[in-house]
Write a structure and sequence with these properties.
Number of helices: 15
Number of strands: 29
Largest sheet: 9 strands, mixed
CATH class of the largest domain: Alpha Beta
Distance between the termini: 64 Å
Structural class: alpha+beta
Number of domains: 3
Shape: globular
Radius of gyration: 26 Å
CATH superfamily of the largest domain: Alkaline Phosphatase, subunit A
Strand content: 15-25%
CATH topology of the largest domain: Alkaline Phosphatase, subunit A
Length: 632
């Protein structure tokens, strides 16, 4: 043992005996990371915040660490929230504004914080629901990748471990936590620090819990929210066409028969989360690594349980914006006495990077909690003056997109495609009943929040998601090299033909074969991305009605292959069907078309259509998403 190592050993022993190991020691002994993410767990659905709930493990974790009373999500739905958490960026900067079956913008243009840690010598693993595309395929920079397609099932869900399918029986979260347990015990034997993310499915719909939960909460009577019978279509006009009403939506209360049975089912699912957390806490303790492991529990967003007759997430109200957030650090300062500062889901990545590497990557927008864990006597400012929220969905009317800014006291909600805003004084109206947007006494607060929201959009490169009908595309039937540039498209050598829109549609008649087995038709769209990140767009191809088969044709049910940098990365349901690939478990409603990743600067969106003599001749081609920074 050299002199330096001997000195470190003596230092550690001395500090251990004194019971005071400072965080700065992490520069010599990097901490392990265990991060657990549940799905749709309300911030107040834990025993230490609601005595009706039985969550002993989460409650114990809260006493050992901090259960933040003012923790907030950044997005109104699962995939964007997870992208923000994993990158430390807002959802639009992380190229993930919506739920997609395969989000190629995220997969090809973003880097998750565990991938950054892997380059710093960390062993990295991801177990459970990913929900950001090609979920069962191993991801670069992970030593262990264990997931399943899309959102998976609550029971008998196979888990793909490093690309190989392993059939499983029983409750999926039990299998996820069991794999996490064995992984922690194994990795704890190594001298390498590790980062393990465990993503549970519960308490996400459908609320199908294991038999051991059948009678849980039978003797409990859950109170209806005070606003349960207030009609949101009248009090909140931006939601007047909202699709998801708790009392009417078939997967809401009607599926369970009553409000009581609905909330009890959700509560039973939330209690299984506590069991999973307990399994993982026990593994860390018995592996002997508690003193050097940062342990964090959170959820992607909260959940509405009847407030204003709403259910699910999406909305910028407190029950959705707030998330459970419990963090236990080695030598936790003031355990069970958390700061009341507002913190964000987006802060997790920069905090972990700070404590594991000593610095926060410049591209992360979140803030490290080091300032809370190790507060400076000279810093009296709140950790965050405001938090921002964003929700977008391509069903503009039935699930209205909105953005919000919240300070400690006030909240402003602004609808993206409607002329409505909502302003709430959360101190005097915590239930968000009285909209003050037209109250002259609150004009100063309204103007201040609107200014904050406008500045946030400008500073982060946010843009309204819109749709554009293309004026022209380039067509070729012969293409060997799929990795093409703008110069290639302009070259006569590759036989590209410019096709312009006529009478609001593209006429492909000259490219449709008169007879035979069909042909491949390559379509190129040159585009320049002048933004600072991939803005996320999806390609939409549609034909009003196929005169032969009498049903709408879209890019889902025609054979389509999408390319990126020479590789085929997307195939439509029509392509899968044509090639004998089962789509029985494929939720086509979430396949919003080819999502071509865009690098900064010049790009060519390239896709291939399989056309036959039965293919309609006239088509519409458009792009939907962050169009503002694109030049065609």
């Amino acid at each position: 043992m050299n002199i330096f190592k001997s000195y470190l050993l003596r230092l550690f022993i001395t500090l251990f005996l004194l019971g005071n190991i400072p965080h700065s020691y992490c520069q010599y002994r990097k901490p392990n990371i265990v991060l657990i993410i549940s799905d749709d767990h309300r911030h107040d659905w834990m025993g230490h915040k609601n005595k009706v709930l039985q969550t002993p493990n989460l409650d114990r974790l809260a006493t050992q660490g901090w259960s933040f009373p003012n923790a907030f999500g950044v997005a109104g739905v699962c995939a964007p929230a997870r992208a923000s958490l994993l990158t430390g960026k807002y959802m639009h900067q992380a190229s993930a504004p919506d739920i997609n079956w395969d989000n190629h913008s995220f997969l090809f243009t973003q880097e998750m914080f565990p991938q950054k840690l892997h380059r710093q010598g960390y062993k990295t693993g991801y177990i459970g629901k990913f929900h950001l595309g090609e979920d069962e395929k191993p991801k670069k920079g992970f030593d262990l990748w264990a997931s399943f397609p899309f959102v998976g099932n609550h029971f008998d869900q196979s888990i793909w471990i490093n690309g190989k399918e392993f059939p499983k029986k029983g409750f999926t979260d039990d299998n996820i936590s069991a794999l996490a347990d064995s992984t922690i015990r194994k990795w704890a034997l190594s001298e390498e620090p590790f980062c393990l993310i465990v993503a549970l499915k519960s308490p996400h719909i459908p609320f199908t819990f294991p038999e051991r939960m059948n009678t849980k909460y039978d003797s409990v009577s859950f109170k209806e929210p005070f606003t349960y019978n207030l009609d949101y279509s009248k009090t909140k006009p931006g939601l007047s066409k909202n699709l998801i009403n708790a009392k009417a939506w078939r997967i809401g209360i009607p599926q369970y028969g009553s409000f009581q049975q609905w909330v009890k089912a959700y509560s039973r699912m939330a209690t299984t989360v506590d069991e999973s957390v307990g399994t993982i806490m026990k593994a860390v303790a018995e592996a002997g690594i508690e003193d050097n492991t940062i342990f964090i529990y959170t959820s992607d967003q909260g959940y509405s349980l009847g407030e204003f007759s709403l259910c699910e997430k999406h909305y910028a109200y407190e029950q959705v914006m707030r998330v459970p957030m419990i963090a236990r650090f080695p030598n936790q300062p003031k355990p069970n006495i958390p700061p009341t500062d507002m913190v964000s889901l987006m802060d997790i990545a920069p905090t972990i990077m700070d404590y594991c590497t000593g610095k926060v990557p410049v591209d992360m927008m979140g803030k490290s909690w080091r300032g809370l864990m190790e507060p400076s006597k000279n810093n009296s400012k709140p950790f965050r003056a405001e938090v921002f929220f964003d929700f977008w969905h391509n069903m503009y009317d039935s699930l209205p997109p909105m953005q919000a800014v919240r300070t400690q006291r006030y909240k402003l909600i602004s609808y993206e495609y409607q002329p409505f805003q909502e302003l709430y004084d959360l101190k005097n109206d915590p239930l968000e009943i009285k909209n003050l947007i037209d109250n002259r006494n609150f004009k100063k607060e309204k103007d201040n929040l609107n200014k904050k929201l406008t500045n946030w959009k400008k500073q982060t490169g946010w843009m309204t998601r819109s749709s554009i009908k293309l004026n022209a595309v380039y067509i070729s039937k012969n293409l060997k090299n799929k990795n093409i540039t703008m110069k290639d498209v302009a070259s006569d050598k590759l036989h590209w033909k410019k096709l312009e829109r006529e009478n609001d549609l593209f006429n492909f008649s000259e490219f449709i074969p008169a007879k035979g087995d069909g042909e491949d038709l390559y379509i190129a769209i040159p585009v320049k991305n002048e933004g600072k990140f991939d803005p996320f767009i999806s390609l939409r191809i549609s034909n009003d009605y196929d005169k032969n088969n009498k049903f709408p044709l879209t890019d889902q049910n025609i054979p389509l292959t999408g390319y990126f940098e020479g590789e085929g990365i997307y195939t439509s349901i029509g392509w899968k069907t044509q090639n004998g690939i089962s789509t029985a478990s494929y939720r086509g409603s979430f396949d919003h078309g080819f999502n071509p990743p865009l690098r900064l600067g010049d790009n060519v969106i390239l896709f291939k259509l399989g056309v036959t003599n039965k293919t309609p001749e006239k088509w519409d081609i458009s792009l939907v998403g962050g169009i503002s920074y694109l030049k065609f």
